[in-house]
Amino acid sequence: MNRVLVANRGEIAARVIKACRSCGVKTVAVYSLPDIASSHSWLADEAICIGSAAASNSYLCQDRLIHVALQTGCDALHPGYGFLSERSEFVEQCHQEGIVFIGPAAEHIRLMGDKAKARETVMALGVPVVPGSLGAYSDMDEAFAAVSDIGYPLLLKARSGGGGRGMRVVEEESQFHILFAQARSEAEAAFGDGEIYLERYFERVRHIEVQIFGDRHGNIRHLGERDCSLQRRHQKLLEESPSPVLDQFTRENICADAISIAKGINYEGAGTVEFIYDTLSGEYFFIEMNTRIQVEHPVTEVVTGIDLVAEQIYVASGKILSFVNDELDCSGHAIEFRINAEDPTRDFCPSPGVLHKWQPPSGEGIRFDSHVYQGYEIPPYYDSLLGKLIVHGKDRDEALTRSRAALQSFVVEGVATTIPFHLKVIEHEDFITNKIHTRWVETELQ
Ligand code: ADP
Ligand code: ADP
Ligand code: MG
After folding, report:
1. How close is the Cα of 46 to the center of ligand 2, in Å?
2. pTM of the shown model
3. Distance (Å, rounded) from C-alpha 199 to C-alpha 116?
4. By CB distance 3.0 to 4.6 Å, which of 69, 104, 187, 318 could disulfide with 108?
């Protein structure tokens, strides 16, 4: 692999460019017109403008991206997360043009991208899945008929969903029809697929996910788990590794189950198997598998010392996993804070604008992944992630102490961010003593 087209924007594009550089691989960045100011557009060896602000006219233009890759002599493409990262037809198109797609095979993206099919596959492999419907429905009456096996509260989920969208919690029967119609139209608009499946809704669970990796030689390994229980509207805001609530027995089981799934489908590349975990019963259930690098991958990197994006590059070029013969040497505890341009005092409303002052923290155990800088103007067209603050300590206590100092010394002027929210969270007794759950921000944090 000599030259990689980085088919994404923002922090993940910058992150991929750095990994390529550390592997001695050249990069070509792409940017939309307003993103000329994003640092990813000048960190690469070369940068090409691919269109206007709307993603449908730039980052989602498959033909244009392939054309740019061929024109600039790229032999591989990294999709990052979001955008085209989980489009199986795009992977096939890359292959047809002789471009290596740095990610899993098209068939695995297709299989796991159909979340109802994924549940079926995982069930057949003997891993527990959330009790729910067998398939997905667009017909309301058929869906309603499936409720009797599940009961309330239940969760309506889009078969092709992602990013926490297209989901509705149904507390009781009287709400079913209206919420089903809402979920279906939201899913249709967001994912072009209005099919909905049903799951039993667990009100007080943790989100635990396992990072797995496979290579072309049949090796599959895990890199431990991440705990992403701090969420708002089913979207993650803060992630940590290792999970502070898993005992060793459960940890080994959940990681072994994630491996069984990856082995069962002969998976190649980086992937994440997501579960919900009931701390009261000790049970866990598969919810979905993401066939890409995750936003929160750095917490795993800092505790394992493995560069996951570099590993994606090795594996895609046919090499053996670099850590296949070693015991994983995990050390300490890591926490990632998503620093979003959102106003937590106004219901996390996006707050685009200019970063008049911008000084991220640094120091022992502090990493900051970002594409922005002082004077940067946040375009209103894309997600609100400004960067990810990753804090490492020898244990959770030290990570929390360092986090507090880092968040307090973070200087931002010009836009509202999630920094005050994160400070409030890490000072809260429930967070410190691990009493939180995926609904905690909405139901308990005042
Ligand atoms: P993960 O942590 O599993 O990568 P995220 O919740 O961060 O998952 O995001 C999942 C995908 O959805 C990502 O590809 C991200 O770009 C996208 N995404 C995240 N938040 C939003 C949002 N508010 N609107 C649209 N897409 C989003
Ligand atoms: P997405 O593709 O949008 O990430 P997920 O299936 O991963 O969708 O669900 C998003 C979040 O919603 C999860 O991280 C989890 O916290 C919560 N969730 C998902 N399924 C359930 C469920 N059955 N009960 C309770 N919470 C759930
Ligand atoms: Mg998910």
Report:
1. 39
2. 0.97
3. 10
4. 104
